[in-house]
């Protein structure tokens, strides 16, 4: 059980919550702050003060005063009218993440909701009732209005949820779990939907997958180095310390560890003086992608613990301030950066695939074919990888450079951060498929070189891979092989496997 405080949530904890089904509870001290802040909102309503989002309309209607008796209707109307999401739903992990992050930001005690609202969000998490949230429709400022409105709907017993493997009306799940839908009171609707939790939840899932993929890329690249009898000198510690980037140094170190007892790597001048960049510059390129990942993780952890709704309440109600923390620009930039960093892992992987299959660049059978000419072998797998790499270049176009005004120009600059976040996730799926193709080719090359000559680590990795796909002994439908390896990479923690093997050496 992970305790939410509003201040301390980490990516590692989110991994447990999203992928391992860990439960959540709220810190009592934080809940006390929530209750105290709520008292301020109720006093504002009782006194008839004019405060944005509490006793006024929204956006361009911020100058419209709402009467006390209409405050509840205002919040309900807000949720219904703003639930304009379209397209396929986010994965369940993302909508689960949205629930968690929305509760966490409320626990900072500056949003003005009742503790009941926070508890309801946590009930949905712990009972695995996940809102059906369409992926499209957010501008990323004033927060993720449309996606979060679909999240808020289910608390009211409206909309749809994923529950026990099915997509059902929210009331079906609430009834079965013995839960009552809530009726929103002053400010609560706005506090639920004004924030960056859709782009951030998708961003967290993307980061988790990207981190695992980056480690896997090092293992797969190491197999390719063996298949091409690469020069190990290029990974010498002195080379990388001379430049000074710690991520580059770390990648080189891990690859040296992976290949330390390999009989397939060569020394400088033994077969050739130097390798092509796609082999020789693995630490420099992969290391730079790790720099991106480290930046993205830092920004995500800030945003996961941020108050991103509006207005915010401070100093016991002395200050109720309309700000702009809902603007998703920091996450938009981070997700666009993630897109570029991950796309580059696929770019260099595809070039390694080319070196594995091109007979003019190696001494392996052409296209790794068991019978060149009659059988095409891995020829079209390189085409598929090239297609994915090209698609990534389009997806990597920064969403954050665009902005379209909305709400009659009141909201005249927006982040498009949710688009960036969605595209980052799509790129990561493509990267994993490119790496799967490289792995299939590298395993085949290893067989020609002699599996017994592989390092302890790559040999273990090879045998695990061969449990997913057989050797290429004749042409077959290779799309099945690619998908099998892709699924295996996505669902297995090869980081732990690699570390365990290295520790045993």
UniProtKB/TrEMBL annotation:
GO terms for cellular component: cytoplasm. Pathway: Amino-acid degradation; L-histidine degradation into L-glutamate; N-formimidoyl-L-glutamate from L-histidine: step 1/3. Keywords: Cytoplasm, Histidine metabolism, Lyase. This is Histidine ammonia-lyase. The keyword Lyase applies. One of its GO terms (biological process) is L-histidine catabolic process to glutamate and formate. It comes from Bacillus toyonensis. The modification 2,3-didehydroalanine (Ser) is found at residue 142. One of its GO terms (molecular function) is histidine ammonia-lyase activity. Belongs to the PAL/histidase family. It is found in: Cytoplasm. Contains an active site 4-methylidene-imidazol-5-one (MIO), which is formed autocatalytically by cyclization and dehydration of residues Ala-Ser-Gly. PANTHER family: HISTIDINE AMMONIA-LYASE. Pfam families: Lyase_aromatic. There is a cross-link at residues 141-143 (5-imidazolinone (Ala-Gly)). Its EC number is 4.3.1.3. It catalyses: L-histidine = trans-urocanate + NH4(+).
